[in-house]
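Open question from group meeting: does this chain pack into something compact, or does most of it stay loose? Before anyone orders reagents, we agreed to write out a predicted structure and look at it together. Recording both the input and the output here so the notebook holds the full record.
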Amino acid sequence: MKTDKLRINQLSQETYEWYLAYLQAIDSKNVELYATFLADDCVMQSNNNAPVQGKVAIVEFLSDYWTSFASLEHDLLNIYGSDSFFVLEALNHYKRNDGQAVTIRAVALSDRNKNGLAASVRFYTDTTPLFAPIAA
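Structure tokens returned:
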């Protein structure tokens, strides 16, 4: 994970550290660790796709999705909001399964419940370059 371009961070130090650990679980593609950050009734939605309801379904979804690329590294640009509701603007650096590097701009909205777990995660990004055919 890269934080050297982080310009604005409106989170408390405690929530920022929680969020860094959360993002590191994603970057490591460790779905079991990532699940520890989710409320049982968490809802995840990507773009206009149907929401994925519940921690168990999210883990199942991500276990499959994370095999579709070799690696991911978040490059944080801005974090706006409060410790309960916040928005991340980032560059996501992927390595495709064919070894090609792809960088995609992304925005993620996160809501945490009273226990500090992710209750809702919505992310918006155009992953077309991640899955495009290899250029000849």
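Observations to bring back to the group:
The domain at 8-125 is CATH 3.10.450.50 (Nuclear Transport Factor 2; Chain: A,).
Strands lie at 8-9, 38-46, 52-53, 71-81, 85-95, 101-112, 118-125.
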